[in-house]
Amino acid sequence: MTTADIIRHLHLTPHPEGGHYRETYRSGHTLGPAGPDARHVSTAIYYLLAGQDKSHFHRIKSDELWFFHQGQPLDIILLLQGQPPTTVTLGTDLAAGQVPQAIIPANTWFAARLPHGTGHALVSCTVAPGFDFADFELATREELTAEFPHLTELIGELTLG
């Protein structure tokens, strides 16, 4: 299937951070007090990056797990204070250091891209407690550069304008 076929077949729509997605699961159970602060126990999405698409630096308030399904390897870049950037490559070539799943701890700035900028990668992401756009923060170039001044080039590449 082509990338466009996958987007159509899975009913994916553009995601604010980049790429395409569709929520596939939202637990019927919630955590926390009733009201706007309650969070579903878990959520899941399909997520697809193609060609030069990027998942721009962002963070959420919950742990997130990414699971590789098909396509080209996908680099996930994590920024942790006091450490060099960490890259986890999702894929099926275990001998080359690729892994089929990755864990992004809550409140960690991270981004994703196809290392060769060609083809596509289809993954699933689960979030626990469940994803809510109220917990989503898309990084600004200025904010992230102030926090990680030694990573100006990487931040410039993986943030929006």
Automatic annotation (TrEMBL):
InterPro entries (alphabetical): Cupin_DUF985, RmlC-like_jellyroll, RmlC_Cupin_sf, YML079W-like
CDD domains named among the record's database cross-references: cupin_YML079wp
Coiled coil: none
Pfam families xrefs: Cupin_5
Annotated protein name in UniProt: Cupin domain-containing protein
Organism lineage: Bacteria, Pseudomonadati, Bacteroidota, Cytophagia, Cytophagales
